[in-house]
Specification:
The chain is mainly β. Helix content is about 5%, strand content about 45%. The protein has one domain: Sandwich (Jelly Rolls), CATH 2.60.120.1440.
């Protein structure tokens, strides 16, 4: 089936290496570290709230509040400290807006581009919640594999596996409660009724976040 081809993070990094990568960068507080780049194809940059830019590499830490931007033909995979894994496609810009250790919840701002998220153990109600805000709307997920894109004049969201994705636009919320359902949101409009996306649309979406060998 088409959804079996979607990315399952294959990160074979030993536990000791992961622990070392999770240490804060010089001058950074441990609570500021939001995650670590575990795979990168192409080029990506991190911009601090103070305007300091730096190139990202595999093993780089990403801090809360930094804006991440990917270049042309780029794929970036980031493991957050709560265990969630996110993958960005090319020409994507997002910010790790906040992280609350008490609730293990993360808030991301997706300005533009494509985004694949795996928010923790599927079918686990205790997994960390994630909220993604875009210029057009927002969507919230937990224990879910999902795909989203913020493009010119439209936000697209699809549930690939797991529980429920809540999508909101113009003050109206819809639920994607079955795998392969998706919705579109345009500025000032409610999300379209959830519908099963075609195999062609799902495959095209998958390719926007797939690494060259996937």
């Amino acid at each position: 089936m088409i959804h079996d081809r979607w990315l399952r993070p294959r990160i074979g990094i030993p536990l000791l290496v992961l622990l070392l990568l999770s240490l804060p960068a010089p001058g950074a507080l441990a609570q500021d570290v939001a995650g670590t780049v575990v795979r990168l194809h192409g080029a990506a940059m991190a911009l601090s709230p103070e305007g300091q830019a730096r190139a990202l590499n595999t093993g780089s830490e990403v801090l809360v509040g930094e804006q991440i931007t990917t270049d042309r033909d780029t794929r970036l995979r980031l493991r957050l400290i709560d265990g969630a894994v996110i993958t960005l496609g090319d020409h994507s810009t997002f910010t790790l807006a906040g992280y609350e250790p008490a609730s293990r919840g993360v808030v991301l701002d997706l300005l533009q581009g494509v985004f694949l998220g795996v928010t923790g153990l599927l079918d686990d109600d205790t997994s960390a919640p994630m909220t993604i805000n875009t210029p057009i709307g927002s969507f919230g997920v937990r224990g879910t594999t999902f795909w989203g894109r913020q493009g010119p004049g439209r936000m697209e969201v699809a549930l690939l596996e797991g529980g429920v994705v809540h999508v909101e636009g113009a003050g109206v919320q819809v639920e994607l409660d079955q795998p392969l359902l998706g919705t579109d949101v345009r500025p000032g409009e409610a999300p379209t009724p959830p519908m099963r996306w075609s195999d062609q649309r799902l495959e095209a979406s998958r390719l926007t976040v797939a690494f060259p060998d996937e």
